[in-house]
């Protein structure tokens, strides 16, 4: 049963952290002229109206993107993320929050491609309408894990896979780990960015332990929380990045303290960046 609708949560602290990280990854791919491929396995609706009834129910964006919208001088990396959000808002008013496809789309060059998978029928319909006529974007009404099998490896050798499920199914984490294992076998040169919620520390830590058992050689972890850990409450979220590009660790370490100061509730929560597998784990500098 698919009941999750991201419009209830659009623009919250988890979206800001996730899309800031995503913007770092996409911009790293622009450093070379060769084309890249972007695959979003759980793409959602594309954009979300923050004035809609769903968004107004909990007003989660007010403790997320709304706190950054009028920042006069954000750091360079955060400014570029905010520019991507402003690209969806032609006026000065913050009315729309872009989903991950809309965050990425402004940075695609002519030879680059994007493939978007979405299983929820209503979201898939909105997503298809959002990118209708865009020849660089392929929209699939498809289970994202099946999309990993169908669309990897791409002709391009470079690219990014974004995996961002709703975690509404009991076996979601198991399915995700299986999909990552198979996807990495198909396309070991790609960057993979996996988002996960932090609703209780024990569940998040168990997921990370199981991820490490995949024995993928180079994995960076970042977490960002704005509230103390408490069961059944989204206190924060994490991003697991396979094959992180050069300087991603430094970019996150520079940006997250600034972001935490503005979004954390009364100085609660925390942020961290560390290696699950790879350079620092083996003692490299």
TrEMBL record:
Under Pfam families, the record lists: RsmJ (PF04378)
An example Gene Ontology molecular-function term: 23S rRNA (adenine(2030)-N(6))-methyltransferase activity
Where is the site labelled Interaction with substrate rRNA? 4
Name the positions where S-adenosyl-L-methionine binds: 19, 42, 100, 118, 143-144, 164
Query: Which catalytic reaction applies to this protein?
Result: adenosine(2030) in 23S rRNA + S-adenosyl-L-methionine = N(6)-methyladenosine(2030) in 23S rRNA + S-adenosyl-L-homocysteine + H(+)
GO BP terms? rRNA base methylation
Query: Which residues participate directly in catalysis?
Result: 164
Entry keywords, A to Z:
Methyltransferase, RNA-binding, rRNA processing, S-adenosyl-L-methionine, Transferase
Q: Mind naming one GO cellular-component term on file for this protein?
A: cytosol
- EC number assigned by the record: 2.1.1.266
Residues passing through the membrane, by range: none
Q: Name the InterPro entries on file.
A: RlmJ, SAM-dependent_MTases_sf
User: Could you tell me which PANTHER family the record lists for this protein?
Assistant: RIBOSOMAL RNA LARGE SUBUNIT METHYLTRANSFERASE J
Whom does it interact with, and what assembly results? Monomer.
This chain's function reads: Specifically methylates the adenine in position 2030 of 23S rRNA.
The UniProt entry's sequence similarity note says:
Belongs to the RlmJ family.
Name recorded for this polypeptide: Ribosomal RNA large subunit methyltransferase J
Tell me the organism. Methylomagnum ishizawai
Its taxonomic placement starts with: Bacteria, Pseudomonadati, Pseudomonadota, Gammaproteobacteria, Methylococcales
């Amino acid at each position: 049963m698919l009941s999750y609708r991201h419009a209830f949560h659009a623009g919250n602290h988890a979206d800001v952290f996730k899309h800031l990280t995503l913007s770092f990854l996409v911009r790293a791919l622009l450093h070379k002229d060769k084309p890249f491929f972007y695959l979003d396995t759980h793409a959602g609706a594309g954009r979300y109206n923050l004035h809609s009834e769903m968004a107004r129910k909990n007003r989660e964006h007010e403790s997320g993107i709304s706190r950054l919208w009028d920042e006069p001088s954000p750091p360079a990396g955060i400014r570029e993320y905010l520019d991507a959000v402003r690209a969806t808002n032609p006026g000065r008013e913050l009315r729309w929050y872009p989903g991950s496809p809309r965050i990425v789309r402004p940075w695609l060059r002519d030879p680059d491609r994007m493939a978007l998978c979405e299983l929820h029928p209503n979201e898939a319909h909105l997503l298809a309408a959002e990118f209708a006529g865009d020849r660089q974007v392929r929209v699939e009404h498809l289970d994202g894990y099946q999309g990993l099998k169908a669309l990897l490896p791409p002709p391009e050798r470079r690219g990014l896979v974004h995996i961002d499920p709703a975690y509404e199914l009991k076996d979601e984490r198991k399915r995700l780990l299986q999909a990552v294992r198979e996807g990495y076998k198909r396309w070991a040169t790609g960057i993979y960015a996996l988002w996960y919620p932090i609703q209780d520390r024990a569940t998040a830590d168990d997921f990370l332990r199981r991820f490490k058992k995949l024995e993928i050689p180079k994995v960076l972890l970042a977490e960002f929380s704005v509230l103390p850990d408490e069961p059944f409450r989204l206190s924060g979220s994490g991003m697991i990045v396979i094959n992180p590009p050069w300087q991603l660790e430094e970019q996150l370490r520079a940006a997250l303290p600034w972001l935490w100061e503005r979004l954390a509730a009364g100085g609660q929560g925390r942020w961290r960046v560390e290696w699950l597998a790879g350079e620092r784990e083996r003692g490299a500098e």
